[in-house]
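yo

u said u wanted the structure for the complex thing, so here. seqs first:
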Amino acid sequence: MGQSSETADGSPLRQLDELDVIVDTDAHIRETVEDLIPYIDDRYEGAKWIVERTEHPERDIYSLTHSLPPSLHAERGGWSADTNTVDKKLQELDEFNIDYGIVDPGLNLVLPTVNNERIAVAMMNAYNSWLLDNFLDEGNHRLKANLLVSHHKPDKSAEEIDRLANEKDVVGVALPSTGVIPPVGHERYDPIYQAASDHDLPVFFHGASTNTSHVFPLQRMYNQTYTEDHVIIHPFSQMWNLSSLIFQGAPERFPDLDFVFQESGVGWIPYLMWRMDDHYLEMNYELPLLQQMPSDYIHDQIYFTTQPLGHTEDNPKHLAMAIEMAGPDNIMYSSDLPHSDFDPPSELFNRIRSHFDRETVENIMGKTAMDLVDL
Amino acid sequence: MPSKHKVATTEELSDGSRVIAEIEGQEIAVFQIDGDYHAISNYCVHQAGPLCEGKLTGDMYIDDNGWDWNYDDDEKHITCPWHGWLFDVTNGENIHNSKYRVPTYGVEVEDGDIFVIR
Ligand code: FES
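structre next:
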């Protein structure tokens, strides 16, 4: 990476349309339970029998709740299913001149709250089949996808990765990461990481404040507003997960595997990196698993998606500085569309275009993602 | 031109013990470990703590099976008493990150006297 605007042709990027490629590394869709029911495999007919008879599956199969309704204010956002078709999703990319979208689930970010393990596995399987059938086969190859996996049954998740990893336009594995206990560094998830590593697919971790009624990092009690809940759940979840991943040695066990942390912005990264390095240097006797500094593992194997950037108007340089501290080679633009806290590409681009050289800006806006998932 | 500074006699320095001497305004510790002498600055490069006033310790390492924690009791690492950073007294390197290094010095023994070369 390089700072300032010294570039091959001597000029920084000025306009978004000068970029060769923009990749959205967190492009949500909005699947419904009704969408998925026809795709529940015959193997899971018992689970299907229950799900199709459940009057309120979002609360009695999943436990999808909020502190207060999240989107009374917004056109975009909410959980209504208007982005469950490929045309809608492509329109969204077009609206913001995004070339590729790495598709992540909507409802199934809440998969960790499914109490019943058999049903969790059935819904994972159904989501993936539905996704491939409806989005990837139809997506003009502008839509790429992460396979959903369930933390409940890592062995079944590994089978699911083996089943679909070689399908065209499958580029990663999505492990919804709020409400996952034990957190993601625990070796019980090794079958997932092994399968992902075998197929050369990065693992994406995406939090969700919907999942906090369940477990740490916060039970929701006393978070009286959606805001209080949402502001901290994403970074807290990811801090817990990243710390667990590093200190329990997952990057050591899977040196060829890349991990991606989504939807917590960038400000928390240097903070946590500093803390982790500090502890590593101090607590020798309990961290023999690690062979290098936590920040070195992060630079080698961990990526972060940018949304939500937060309100960085007051001094626009601060965001670029935060990215510089976090390590710009591992930062990738994401929109989070269609959710109401989405970031258009311009929001990030305008903050970084004059701070970094042209190549670094191009990498953050799309090329790092292209490399990571082999587009 | 380096010069020799007597810091102790071999009799005074038993295995695993140390002496901290002031040499030309700088505190330098000499450790005796398994019959060898190692001189290292009493100055932690982290936050300037009195490095050599801490404990000597071995090192925890992970077994080849990837699971068990083992303790290597070759106690040649000095633990800074301030924040616990560990340095190998034989070469001055931080055990976790060789970027952090404390100055070390040559030692000579003559007729039962121990000298630091500085
Ligand atoms: S001053 Fe030595 S560890 Fe901090």
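Chain A has one domain: 16-372. Residues B 44, 46-47, 49, 51, 80, 82-85 surround FE2/S2 (inorganic) cluster (CB under 6 Å).
cya
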